[in-house]
């Protein structure tokens, strides 16, 4: 397939590389041209603008937030004006439910197609093509783009024909991950201050009650205090918790734990930790118990 790829950050660059490995033609655009050059060395075609990346069958956006997706979609020479009729915009970004609705309506009005397909997995999973894809869109569109999902992930979960459903499920999943990080951090602060080795404690947890990827991955980062380089920055964690709160408000679903997490991420940001891995939010408890700040 002829695929445009917009957004070559930690996740996007690896996803685009795997599309190339699978034999797709990839035209790449990124605000930082050096990242385009790196991908061009692997066989990608460089795009000079967003519009240049929208000449094929599909364009994929993998961007940090709503504002970035809105800018490349609705801006001058953006996706909406450049994508051919019948072509598909896949948003793999974690975006708000409201923006997913707006994108669906706008692309339908332009005779284009829209699929929401955010992913679960950190950069190492993206590099290994082991992401979990959470997708929603019209059934025919799912069939069209399924080879793309096969190239970047180990499994695709199709959640129906309304794209906003995939966005909501991804937001809920990131909220749960943040909840795991916070509770792990509190528990590790408790046993760590009593002299228990944190790695040994984690081995116990993941060998008994909590043998799950989130506990193994984020527990390991907390035990090792390994918050740089960030696989997913804390400022983005705050963004996703706020998306969960917004969705809860719209649906009239109280999310008291999300409210707590918002404040925890704000504390981490206020103390200089915005660019740390979001797992650093779990280290706030140890700091408050007399340890070092995760931002030090």
UniProtKB/TrEMBL annotation:
**One Pfam family named in its UniProt record:** NAD_binding_11
UniProt xrefs under Gene3D superfamilies:
N-(1-d-carboxylethyl)-l-norvaline Dehydrogenase, domain 2 (1.10.1040.10), NAD(P)-binding Rossmann-like Domain (3.40.50.720)
User: Might you name a Gene Ontology BP term for this protein?
Assistant: organic acid catabolic process
PROSITE patterns referenced in this protein's UniProt entry, alphabetically? 3_HYDROXYISOBUT_DH
What GO MF terms are annotated?
A: NAD binding; NADP binding; oxidoreductase activity
The record's section on InterPro entries has:
3-OH-isobutyrate_DH-rel_CS, 6-PGluconate_DH-like_C_sf, 6PGD_dom2, 6PGDH_NADP-bd, HIBADH-like_NADP-bd, HIBADH-related, HIBADH-related_NP60_sf, NAD(P)-bd_dom_sf
Q: Which residue intervals define the domain 3-hydroxyisobutyrate dehydrogenase-like NAD-binding in the entry? A: 167-281
Q: Where is the active site?
A: 170
Do the record's keywords include NAD? yes
> What range(s) does the 6-phosphogluconate dehydrogenase NADP-binding domain occupy?
2-160
Task: Recite the UniProt keywords alphabetically.
Answer: NAD, Oxidoreductase
Spell out the family assignment given in the record's similarity comment.
Answer: Belongs to the HIBADH-related family.
Protein name stated in the entry: 6-phosphogluconate dehydrogenase
Starting at the broadest rank, the lineage of the source organism is: Bacteria, Bacillati, Actinomycetota, Actinomycetes, Mycobacteriales
